[in-house]
Amino acid sequence: YSSIVENLIKGSIYNNNVLHVFNPDTILVDEPTLNQGILQLEFNENILMDPENKIISDEVVETLVRTLTEQEEVEAVDIKVENTEEVVNENGEVDNEPVTNESFSTTEKL
Question: Are 101 and 65 in contact (CB under 8 A)?
Fold first, then answer.
């Protein structure tokens, strides 16, 4: 799972038309763990679009979840940030539950 996440962070070197949503200084601080279908990821604070207010971009969450849940054994993704108790989405809602692919409308695009 680490290689998938690292490739998402790096972005595509082949297609410059792809929207890159990750801060290039984002890193996984711990090895991803899979437990009962929930993949837990822990990143450094560079994954946050607003580190002061602990806000994570909806596009970052959606990109991670849609990509990782394509793996048969991954049902949901639990995103944690190093040294951060609670992370909030762009609407100011606390993201403290694992996120599933069903959390996103099928009419929305990345």
Answer: yes
Cα angle at 34 between 70 and 103, to 5 degrees?
A: 50
CA distance 86 to 24: 22
**pLDDT tens, position by position, 14-55:** 555 445 688 889 999 999 999 999 999 999 999 999 999 999
Structure tokens at 1: 């799972």
Q: Tokens 């290039």 map to which residue?
A: 24
Residue 54 zone, left/alpha/beta (φ > 0; ψ -120 to 50; rest): left
Residues 6 or more apart in contact with residue 64 via CB below 8 angstroms: 5, 8, 41, 77, 79
- Please state at what angle helix 2-10 crosses helix 58-68, rounded to 10 degrees: 140
User: What is the arrangement of strands in the sheet containing 76-81, beginning at the earlier edge strand?
Assistant: 33-35, 38-43, 76-81, 99-100
Spell out a b/e string for 29-42, using b for 16 or more CB atoms within 10 Å of the CB, else e: eeebeeeeebbbbb
